[in-house]
Amino acid sequence: MKRNGSRSCVTRKTRFGSRERDWLKGDTQRGCVCLYGGTVDPQPPASGPQASSTPQTDLQLVLCSTNTTVEELCAQRDGQGLYVQLHGDLVRRLDSSERPLQMVYDYLASMGYTDPVRVQQEAANSDLSCLIRFYSERPVNADQQERTLLKGVFSVRKGKTQLHKWAERQVILCGTCLIVASVKDSLTGKMHILPLVGGKVEEVKRRQHCLMFSSAGSQAQTYFVNFDTLADYQRWHRQASKVVSQTVSLVDLSCYSLETVPEYLFYSQDITHLNLRHNFMSLQGPGGLLNLPRFSQLKSLNLSHNRLGVFPECVCEIFTLTELNLSCNSLHTIPGQIGNLQSLQTLSLDGNHLSSLPEELGDLFQLNSLGLSFNNFSHIPAVLERLSAVDKLAMAGNRVESLKLCTLVRMSHLKIIDLRLNRLRWVKSENLEAVNQVTQLDLRDNCLDSLDLSSVCNLETLHCQRNQLGTLTLGGFTLRMLHASSNRLTTVNIYPVPNQLTHMDLSQNLLEYLPDWVCDCRKIEMLDVTHNLLSELPSRLLNSLSLRKLLTGNNRLQRVPDLLDHVPLEALDLQHNKLAELPESLFYKALNLKYLNVSANALESIPPSSQSEESLSTLQELYLTGNNLNENCGAVLVGHQNLRILHIAYNQLLSFPASKLSKLELLEELNLSGNKLKTIPSTVSSCKRLHTLIAHSNHITVFPEILNLPEIKLVDLSCNELMEIQLPDSLPPTLQELDLTGNSSLMLEHKTLNLFSHITTLKLDQKSTTTAADSLSSSSPWNHGYSEMSGQRNKLCVSVLAVDRFGDSVEACYGIFDGDRNEEVPRLLQCTMGDVLCEELQHSSIDSVYMCNTFLTSHRKLGMAGQKLGASALLCYIHRETSDPGGNFCLTVANVGTCQAVLCRNGRPVPLSKVYSLENCTEEMERVKLSKAIITEDNKVSGVTCCSRLLGCSYLSPWVLPKPWVHTEPLCSQDEFLILGNRALFERVSYQEAVCTVQAVQDPRAAAKKLCSLAQSYGCKDNIGAVVVSLHIGEDSCTCDPLVSTTESRGPPPATVTVTPGPSDPVNLSSSSGIVTEFSSETSASEMGSEAGSTASDEHPSSGPVSRPERRCSLHPATTLCLFQRQPSCATFSSNQSDNGLDSDDEAPLEGVISNGSKLEVEVDIHCCAFQLRSGAPDSPKDLDFEKRGSDYPNGKMRRQNSVVVSATNGCLLAVCGREIADLKKSPSTSSLFGKKLSNGSVVAPEDSHNLIEVALEAPKKKSGYFTAPAQQDPEDQLIVPPSLEQEVREQLRGQSPLVSELSPHT
């Protein structure tokens, strides 16, 4: 996948000269427009002189202003017109009066940019071509031309006999017909038209590249066509096969950026269905809309999404039409000529600006479907009274504020009423007249506070979710389904008893008891009353002979009534109640029970599965998390031999009976986390179907015997006390994830690490040694832990960014990104967003500005991936107050989508983010409706996403925007911790429960693990991500020396020498956790982004006189300097398989590097500090001082980058200063740090705008070596410095004896 224009981005920037820059700076209304040629994604030739990376000649840079029109631009370059392409999608011809630069400025403003100078800069950015792009001529797309029109001169013979001779003829395949004409007079001469629908296209084996075309019917005609090349033969065969396979004469020309249809299409007079959706059809021209009446048999016409602006009256002359779709065309009125379409049966006018309908529409007596959703109607049009064949009123998303039921009485033909997403405030019945015909009524997402539909006698289905209903009154004669969740209901009145009712959803209301009539329903199968205030359940309800699914979680139930007889109950949810016991007869009375969730209660035991030794239990899923169960429950679980999923986490289990576990042979998923287990029985090997074992946060010392299981996929034994691992000779190929973090005593040998090399995700602790620099900061104001769980999904679409030491001072950056169904965008954001924030801090100190720009820039940097894919994103930045750099800490939070942040203050949750989903945000819903988006019944924009703001998904603009919510919260000593989570986490775990959960766990990592495990036990099946940041904000531990006044500006903080930090090190940097290294045996986008995602520039500290270092605490860091700084990361590249796919044995060793016979690892920080290398070192202190002065910014926030590359090599440090970079770049093993390696071994210098997609896709797949494994530290390792750098290093480290003593000369 290549980003459009990726090879021209550098060309575009290099064309800016000093005069052009000066001209642009003179006025923010000035800018440049980049005009591309008409070739779509041209591929460079495979050989020849043009195969080099020379700039393309089809890109022109045109300087202009916001007032410059298309006509003026075309006059300057003698062009015929300009075309615009949004989000890599359709291409539209611009009108002569349109202003291209103003279009770009308006687009950027709609994204969220407000500063005119920044808008001007962004408009000239190369990455913007993936969002908006201009062409000097219509782009040529060979694939589109093939599907629209095939044309050529070939040898043709008519008929199957040999009487006819072969002759050169013009052959055209367009629409549903094959046209054979004279070469000279193809349009005016004699033409032979062969209808192909239902016919045949066959290969002629006697002749090379020859096809036989035959029409259908008894009078079928046949033509033989001999093609010149195999490519032509295949192209015609492929397209003709599609036509002959159709059962109706359908021509689909949707999404082709057409202004007119091909003129040859009008020769296909058998066309009955024509789809022109998503084009830019015009009225005029040979193939314009005015010529559509030439289709004499046309029945169905789709002109939706064509930006028509006015109703095309010419379609009213196609009298054969039975279906017409004009949705999303910005129509304001419908002409009276619509009455001419007497055969019309379906008319779709959704997504327009209609507020009235003509009376002539009532003459369409055959019309049975009329779509009026998402228009501007304030009332139900009266003309509907005459449309007796219409049975559904589709008016969702309009402006109807009141509904008089008497109006529906007059429209006796309407059976289905859809008025969701209106502004309904009341529904009135002014008289006692019954509404007999309405069977389905949808009133979701309105403003109703009460609803009385007792006069709607035959109502079968009612949707009234997400209103403000306090009372609900219905007639129960025919009621079958009731959906009334997310209201304020305290009771529901239905009379008579709804004996036909099968499904009822009353969740998220204020019910304190269930009405008596619920127990009398004879056919009720599903009842959802979760999230209410129920304190008891009626005995008759649980003993119902029809109830199959009962959801009563998150209530106040203290007991469950006994079962008196066998019941057909299949699913029972009792989580989050106050149950101390379950009915004794539960399992042997409910023999059909397959799902039981009693998590988050106070159970001390569970009932037996049967009254005898033989059990008939069919239970498959059992969730017991968060109770007070002990090991005695194991004996009871044996009776459920059909169990597939067992969650018994966070109980009081000291052990699990080995003999009992062996009998659960069908077990597939087992969660034993948060207990007091010291071992997992060896009988777990009897569970041959087990694919998931989660047992973190225990006291396990011995690795369980699970690696012999044939289907094992995920093993989580983090936060235990493992000492060693006994491994078989080979691991199961199914093992995809192994988490061993938090086992501080675990030591892995190289043999073990090599055996783990094929695992897709291996998580291990980084090992560290305490160095002299660590003593400068004995504690940190914060530390964090994280957890990511894929659940029952095949891939993990959640990524975490966590940096405890961000920038140069005591700052931190944390983020979480949720791609829902895609993993590419979260990984890219994980790679780049920290760098983008670091760069934006250089330009502004205003929180709302730099955070907003960080999101918008990250949105742009997604490139082609962001056109169709998107992700929710949340970013937290902890920093000092801008007005007082030495003052209190602040927390700035920005988010789009559904990721959320919660701060614990005095034991109470403080929400810091805003949920940008249509269901939760009324103003966003109104904005999206105002822009005429189509919102489907599941509240998704165009059926794609429920979020109104995302990073990516740019094709949904302007409905879905990347502009974030930004909030800054001052931190204080009462702030205990911060929780970041995605939608799946907070859908299952409330803010208050999340806070209480973390408070009970000391370790942030264990707390994050517990949050995710709880969400899974509560029923979550999706990806879950959680970050817990423990805060230690306060001045109690301050040990600084008295402040000495100085006139010098604030300098960079000290860089420290650390070697692969471990769990106790508070200064770690990691893509996901400072105490976790997460590895992938195949190169991921996040790994490759480490070399392409860095954007900030390098700064170098100036040298000065050495003085006694001032004693500082972690809250007030010292400003002394040191040469080396370790930046560990999850992106670890083993030299056993280098970045370009070459084997390490073929590579020259790097001078000055000693690996002690072990494999060399190069770790690249993929997050903060914009890890880059300068091309040379300053030659004098003057140069150093110049560099320092060049890095100072007016706002006082300076971000200094490392001047060296530091990497762990089995405990050694690889230090490369500027003068060695030229040699380093020449080394194949390290050149990937400076540019992208191609398959031929060459290196492409990184562009100013990094193409992350291109880099990630071209990355080699690593399948060997112990990639992902940190080397064990050798106690004899020392700091190795090349001889040429020894003196310089000693001089710069003078005064820091602990460091100098570790230096040894390289021999």
Automatic annotation (TrEMBL):
Gene3D superfamilies: PPM-type phosphatase domain, Ribonuclease Inhibitor. GO terms for cellular component: cytoplasm; membrane; nucleus. It is found in: Cytoplasm; Membrane; Nucleus. Residues 1067-1096, 1294-1307 have a biased composition (Polar residues). Residues 1043-1111, 1287-1307 are annotated as: Disordered. It catalyses: O-phospho-L-threonyl-[protein] + H2O = L-threonyl-[protein] + phosphate. It is an enzyme of class 3 (hydrolase). Protein phosphatase involved in regulation of Akt and PKC signaling. Mediates dephosphorylation in the C-terminal domain hydrophobic motif of members of the AGC Ser/Thr protein kinase family; specifically acts on 'Ser-473' of AKT1, 'Ser-660' of PRKCB isoform beta-II and 'Ser-657' of PRKCA. Akt regulates the balance between cell survival and apoptosis through a cascade that primarily alters the function of transcription factors that regulate pro- and antiapoptotic genes. Dephosphorylation of 'Ser-473' of Akt triggers apoptosis and decreases cell proliferation. This is PH domain leucine-rich repeat-containing protein phosphatase 2.
